[in-house]
Design a protein that fits this description.
heterodimer; A: 393 residues; alpha/beta; seven-stranded mixed β-sheet; six-stranded parallel β-sheet; globular; B: 189 residues; alpha+beta; seven-stranded antiparallel β-sheet; 5 helices; 7 strands; 33% strand
């Protein structure tokens, strides 16, 4: 089969690789009908994530048709059309039982290494480095899905792929970011970054009852898309963001701030990690500034919700301001499984059509170029979907 | 101790204590989660014969007997006879607080009676015994909670089939692991 493989920094290649096999009783094999490139894939592309190995198959947003199931999978059958959460969860551990699916402590084969790095291990992820299990990802024609009796959700035939694909990651990720704000009627939510996750955070905040959403972003087409979703656009290059947020909220500040940008830096062991983070801080000044700005802008007693990926150490985060203002911080990888059915209902009820975010549709051969286009935000690129078998709609 | 190692580890298993105890009591299942234990034959209620994967594919065997058994609470065993390695293990089972299943607390020891670390002991527990035991216990927990042990061995990769000297250390390590699995003749856990 064809698969998009990581081949070093800013180097993605399409290779012929063997098709996946059932390796464990609870596995399934899914033939991918639609896949996508995620903003977090750009961290891999840029070489910021440690423990990637040449040849690793990328991709964690995918859906498709079940073509084989292991002997312990009794709720899925060949031919079932499913969307697959990017975090792999066993459904039986302490964390899964408490709906903390992305913290599953049974699904990551590299748990021992991650435990040394972070104090505890968390779940395996598709196509997201060997610290997260080294699972082959979904920018491929076929994927092996572990714990297939727990993760994949069957989707109604009436809904085309592009309407349900993003249940695999960015829709639940944006939704959890908003859910973590514990929105009350009348609340104003500031969303920093109007990339794909920011776009879904904006729409999710409204679904959860926010009165106003302010989108902070510099790319015009992303601001326009945010505005189309009901947000008030705030061009981050057009003046002091904190000051303008204050003005827009009667001097109080937003009730919650969502950092949908994150920071592009990881490392391999503490010292390397710290150095790399510092290096990246110098190179990419905007990244830590988002979290800092969110803390400074948020009203006292408010929440800073962080769906953007962070790793390692940060310099000059104003924890004193956060403490003084009594802020709440919520963060982490998305507990996708928790939101699947709720969000499918919203799609069925036509509260939202997640395909609004798509700007580019490509086949497998287009993936290497699309990484660059997406990273550089060229050609109005906000979200790329992939049709591995070339049947572009 | 100079000529051996002792390791303590604790792990939570999200199942009731009697179930966890019963699974640990099946000594014959040890090879499913203990990396270097190739076979455990239960001779009778108390005695068992162990085969351990030694260095360079050579195996080490010993007989062990259960020396302490309090169902659902404690199980301890130790090797008997004059094998090159003296091994002992003691496992205690406690209820976790607030519905956290069962705390499994193990203490394992390996020592060489001839007064020095034999290659077999070094191989078994020389490098990082605590990690070794911890990973064995993690596999035990996973097997019990999920019925399987997560793996990516055997999945497709786009890595070039011919490795060159420039290949990363990680890749080299992976290939060493692959050879060891082949030597032991076992299915990958």
């Amino acid at each position: 089969m064809k698969a998009a493989c990581w081949n070093g920094k800013t180097n993605v290649v399409i290779r012929d690789v063997p098709e996946p096999k059932i390796l464990n009783p609870r596995d399934a094999i899914v033939r991918v009908t639609t896949s996508a490139i995620c903003g977090s894939d750009l961290h891999l592309y840029g070489g910021f994530v440690p423990s990637m190995e040449k040849g690793d198959i990328l991709g964690h947003e995918f859906m498709g048709e079940v073509v084989a199931v292991g002997p312990a999978v009794s709720n899925l059958f060949e031919g079932d059309r499913v969307v697959v959460p990017f975090a792999i969860a066993c459904g039986a551990c302490y964390f899964c039982e408490r709906e903390l699916w992305s913290l599953c402590d049974n699904s990551n084969p590299s748990a021992g290494k991650l435990e040394k790095l972070n104090g505890s291990a968390t779940s395996g992820l598709f196509g997201y480095s060997h610290l997260y299990g080294g699972y082959a990802g979904g920018q491929a024609e076929f994927v092996r899905v572990p714990f297939a009796d727990v993760g994949p959700m069957k989707v109604p035939a009436a809904l085309e792929d592009e309407k349900v694909l993003f249940l695999s990651d960015i829709f639940p990720t944006g939704y959890m970011a908003a859910d973590n704000c514990d929105i009350s009627p009348g609340d104003t939510i500031a969303v920093f970054g109007a990339g794909p996750v920011g776009q879904f955070a904006i729409r999710s905040a409204f679904l959860l009852g926010a009165e106003r959403v302010i989108a902070i972003e510099s790319v015009p087409e992303r601001l326009a898309m945010a505005e189309a979703g009901g947000a008030e656009p705030l061009d981050e290059n057009a003046g002091d963001v904190i000051e303008r947020l204050r003005e827009m909220t009667g001097g109080m500040g937003p009730d919650s701030c969502i950092d949908a940008v994150g920071m592009e830096a990881h490392g391999h062991g503490m010292v390397d990690w710290y150095d790399k983070v510092k290096q990246t801080v110098k190179l990419e000044q905007d990244r830590p500034i988002v979290l800092r700005t969110a803390i400074m802008a948020c009203r006292p007693g408010g929440t800073v919700s962080i769906p953007g990926v962070y790793a390692g150490f940060l310099d000059r985060v104003p924890l004193g301001a956060a403490f003084a203002k009594g802020l709440t911080f919520r963060m982490g990888q998305t507990h996708v499984h928790r939101y699947l059915r709720r969000l499918l209902e919203h799609i069925l009820d036509e509260d939202i059509d997640p395909s609004f975010v798509i700007t580019h549709r490509i086949g497998m051969e287009g993936i290497p170029d699309a990484y660059e286009t997406f990273r550089d935000k060229k050609d109005g690129c906000i979200k790329v979907v992939i049709k591995p078998r070339g049947d572009l709609a | 101790m100079e000529n051996g190692v002792q390791v303590r580890q604790v792990f939570l298993v999200n199942l009731p204590r009697n179930e966890v105890y019963a699974r640990w009591r099946r000594l014959r299942d040890f090879p499913r989660f203990m990396k270097y234990v190739r076979r455990v034959e239960e001779i009778d209620e108390k005695r068992s014969r162990w085969t351990i994967e030694g260095p360079r594919g050579r195996s080490v065997t010993w007989e062990a007997e259960i020396v302490e058994e309090e169902p659902d609470r404690i199980l301890a065993w130790r090797s008997v006879g004059d094998a090159d390695i003296r091994h002992g293990g003691r496992v205690e089972f406690f209820d976790g607080t607030g519905g956290r299943g069962t705390v499994v607390a193990t203490r394992m020891s390996y020592e060489s009676p001839i007064g020095k670390m034999t290659p077999a002991v070094a191989r078994l527990f020389g490098e990082d015994p605590a990690t070794q035991v911890r990973e064995d216990m993690r596999r035990f927990k996973r097997l019990l909670e999920t019925g399987e042990i997560p793996t990516v061995d055997g999945q497709p990769t786009g890595a070039e089939p011919t490795e060159t000297s420039e290949e990363s250390a990680a890749t080299a390590k992976r290939s060493r692991r692959g050879r060891r699995t082949a030597e032991s003749g076992e299915a990958t856990p």
